[in-house]
From TrEMBL:
Location of the region described as Disordered in the Swiss-Prot/TrEMBL record: 340-362
Organism this protein belongs to: Promicromonospora vindobonensis
InterPro entries: Cyt_P450_B, Cyt_P450_CS, Cyt_P450_sf
Annotated Basic and acidic residues bias: 342-355
Family membership noted in the UniProt record: Belongs to the cytochrome P450 family.
PANTHER family in the record: CYTOCHROME P450 YJIB-RELATED, P450, PUTATIVE (EUROFUNG)-RELATED
Stated name of the protein: Cytochrome P450
Length: 426
């Protein structure tokens, strides 16, 4: 049990011990039980352990409340995305080789992901413009082609891990193809992205360096030979000062494909395959495919905790807690989506309700929700349309990702065989 010091609501993070580890929450069979326990003890903002390196505990605040998450995400004047404002960085407290250190450099990388205010606007605009210029029909056709190739590789029938066989390659390669990479390069990026999600600090740093090098090489080829895809749009944008800005901006959707799309597709298929009542609602047309995807975003959010903390610029009160200048705040997406204060007993309030925070909100909201939904919808629909799949849950249950940020089964043991066309889900 964490030990408190000082007056209620004014705990100093560095003086607390026994904190719950983020990865322990995401990898547990019941994360909501952890959130409920933290709410009972601390309210809507709770101290947590982000990472442990040797004897050093890197701590922060986990924002559990829906309203509190919205407030922090929307107020970049008070809560910065720039990790130079994190006390662990400016007081040089981080041990070498931490995973969080690789994600949150004291010298922010030149992408909107790490900046606030006018610099964020300058770097975010090219990505928004490039996404707006994408031909969604072409993206859908590319994703369908990718699904067909992966299903063809699975064979007429077989048994294995659906995550490795389908969810990961379809989601990731569809996104990298949209960016303009060939399949071989997309495969290399997929390997490094998996390391970024779940590696230790040194592995994460090395994978990020390889990813940057790969994207920089691609930018050079586009400049010389031209090309298609989202990166081609970025290369010609007037806002960028140099190619490193283009590359680091392109890495955001690459990482998003690794962290978000694979998990979203996996969680959706797990929901349909594991829950017979839910599957009956889907097959019976009582819930559309988009409704199915939203159900997952609400109740099984692929992003449990945002991998981009905010940092308090000054002492501020949030949820009855004193957040001190330089403290890190982790956005508790899955906790916020389940916050009892954000729900009513009226079932009509749940119809087409997309006020969940799986996309974030405010100036740093996900730039590509339409693109991600298009790829995920196509991937799930195509598999269920063309394959009969049976989930084989082992006696010990399914293993869950050990990442502090993302939640999905790392394996879905299944048997499959090619089916007659069932028709698209509504």
């Amino acid at each position: 049990m964490p030990q408190r010091t000082g007056q209620a609501g004014a705990e100093c993070l560095e003086e607390l011990s026994g904190l719950t580890n983020l990865a322990k929450i995401t990898s547990s069979p019941d994360p909501q039980a952890h959130y409920a326990e933290l709410r009972t003890q601390w309210g809507s903002v709770a101290p947590i352990e982000i990472e442990r390196k040797g004897d050093t505990v890197i701590s922060g605040w986990l924002v559990l409340g829906h309203a509190e998450n919205c407030h922090v995400m929307r107020d970049e004047l008070q809560f910065s995305r720039n990790a130079a404002n994190w006390r662990w960085n400016y007081d040089d407290l981080l041990p070498p080789g931490t995973a969080i250190g690789a994600f949150t450099p004291a010298e922010p990388r030149p992408t909107a992901f790490y900046h606030d205010d006018t610099e964020r606007q300058r770097l975010r605009e090219p990505l928004d413009d490039a996404l707006e210029a994408l031909d969604e029909r072409a993206v859908r056709d590319q994703t369908t082609y990718m699904c067909e190739k992966v299903i063809e590789r699975m064979g007429v029938s077989g048994a294995g891990d659906l995550v490795r066989a389908y969810c990961q390659p379809v989601g990731f390669l569809a996104m990298t193809t949209t960016l303009g990479f060939d399949l071989e390069t997309g495969g290399r990026l997929m390997t490094d992205a998996a390391t970024v999600v779940d590696g230790d600090g040194d592995e994460v740093a090395a994978a990020l360096t390889r990813t940057l090098d790969t994207v920089m090489e691609h930018i050079g080829r586009v400049r010389q030979d031209g090309g298609q895809g989202l990166i081609t749009h970025l290369v010609s944008h007037k806002n960028f000062a140099h190619d490193v800005e283009i590359a680091t901006s392109a890495i955001v959707p690459v990482s998003g494909a690794a962290i978000f799309l694979t998990a979203w597709i996996t969680q959706t298929l797990h929901q349909v395959l594991a829950d017979r009542k839910f599957a009956a609602r889907v097959s019976g047309g009582r819930i559309t495919l988009d409704g199915t995807l939203d159900e997952v975003l609400w109740h099984r959010s692929p992003i449990s905790h945002s991998p981009a903390p905010r940092y308090a610029r000054n002492d501020v009160e949030l949820g009855g807690r004193l957040i001190r200048k330089g403290d890190a705040l982790v956005m508790g997406i899955a906790a916020a989506n389940a916050d009892p204060a954000a729900h009513t007993d009226d079932q009509r309030d749940k119809i087409d309700n997309r006020s969940h925070l799986s996309w974030g909100t405010g100036p740093h909201a996900c730039p590509a929700p339409r693109l991600a939904r298009l790829i995920a919808r196509t991937a799930v629909d195509h598999l269920l349309r063309h394959m009969d799949i049976t989930l084989r849950v082992p006696d010990g249950g399914l293993p869950w990702a050990s990442s502090p940020w993302v939640r999905h089964p790392t394996q879905l043991p299944v048997t499959w065989h090619r089916a007659a066309d069932h028709g698209a889900i509504g």
